Amino acid sequence: MVEQIAVADREPLPRLRGATLDGSEFDTAEHDGSVLVINVWGSWCPPCRAEAPGLRRVWEETRAEGVQFVGLNVRDTDDAAIAFERRYRLTYPSITTEQSGEALLALRAMLPPNAIPSTLVVDRDGDVAARVIGQATYRTLRALVDDVLEPTPGSSKEAPDVGGDAG
Length: 167
Fold this sequence. Notes:
- The protein is of the alpha/beta class.
- The protein contains 4 helices and 8 strands.
- A 6-stranded mixed sheet has the order 1-8-7-4-5-6. A two-stranded antiparallel sheet has the order 2-3.
- The radius of gyration is 14 Å and the shape is globular.
């Protein structure tokens, strides 16, 4: 399910923070004014594996425009999560399973707790502009990110095609 949220109906993203798999700390407050993509994933999840190349591609194409990505890893050991990141060459940070539970709890009004994978796109004002429940394709995620990079004030475009391109 892909949902774009009209500007007038957007809700602020709760502050999320936690230790990342590389040992650093991530805090959404440090990214105020940036477009932020939050992806909930697990290495054991087939749709998470399928969407990883597309996520990486959107990250690589948009980070120079100030787009920040963060993963919320769930139900993995750190070793399994790190192996997943290496396999799919993901270079954006992911909050560890140990820390992601608090973040998922903060997002409970926006994402069902069992919605893995799921992705939120947050606009420069810190409001949730779109969400994908289930696997995000490259084309869908790129369209959602592009939409918030160049928003049309007061309106929301039709949801982009969620066709089967994986990356």
